[in-house]
Amino acid sequence: MTRAEVRNKLKIRAATAEDAGRIAALSTELGYPSSEEQVRGRLAHIEKDSDHAVFVAEVENDPVIGWVHVCVSRLVENDPEGEIGGLVVDERHRGSGVGKFLMERAEQWAREKSLKSVYLRSNIIRKDAHTFYQRLGYRVLKTQYAFRKLL
């Protein structure tokens, strides 16, 4: 599908519980395995929190082909800003503008919340994603390690 076709046929909307299966499949495709039930439960919590939003992209005759999660990040060392929790576009639709439209919707949401910036993290191995974000005007701030401790 060309960019023009995507622009004319693409719909960006708030995610619903019915989207959980496709969101899970896309998350798994990117390397973050999730079940439909897990995503459904996560969406239920997010829907209740006005500091979070999940938007999905769809085109006619195609299920959800991408999603973006954006939230307000409130830290003691910074003013509040938007943070992209995740962005995934079905590999068949990458390069067609879907990711750009999802990011524009997330940025619009952040502006509606009176936030002055949007922050995101991208795995060091995702070179194509880095190029994509830089084309959208994002700049590398730092390189860091991510740590997790299971409780």
Can I get a quick summary?
With 151 residues, the chain is α+β, with helices and mostly antiparallel strands. It has 5 helices and 5 strands. The chain has one domain: Aminopeptidase (3-Layer(aba) Sandwich), CATH 3.40.630.30.
How many helix segments? 5
For the record, what is the CATH homologous superfamily label? Answer: Gcn5-related N-acetyltransferase (GNAT)
Percent helix among the residues? 25-40%
The count of domains is 1
Low-confidence runs: none
State the shape.
globular
The CATH architecture can be given as 3-Layer(aba) Sandwich
Strand content: 15-25%
Cα-based radius of gyration, to the nearest Å:
15 Å
| Oligomerization state | single chain
- What is the CATH C-level name? Alpha Beta
Major sheet attributes: 5 strands, mixed
**Strand order, sheet with most strands:** 1-2-3-4-5
Average pLDDT, to the nearest integer?
A: 93
Number of strands: 5
What does this structure look like?
- Helix content is 35%, strand content 25%.
- The chain has 151 residues and is α+β, with helices and mostly antiparallel strands.
- It has a single domain (3-135), classed as Gcn5-related N-acetyltransferase (GNAT) (Aminopeptidase).
- It has a 5-stranded mixed sheet, with helices on both faces.
- The longest helix has 15 residues, at 98-112.
- The protein is globular.
Q: Key features?
A:
single chain, 151 residues, alpha+beta, Aminopeptidase, 25% strand
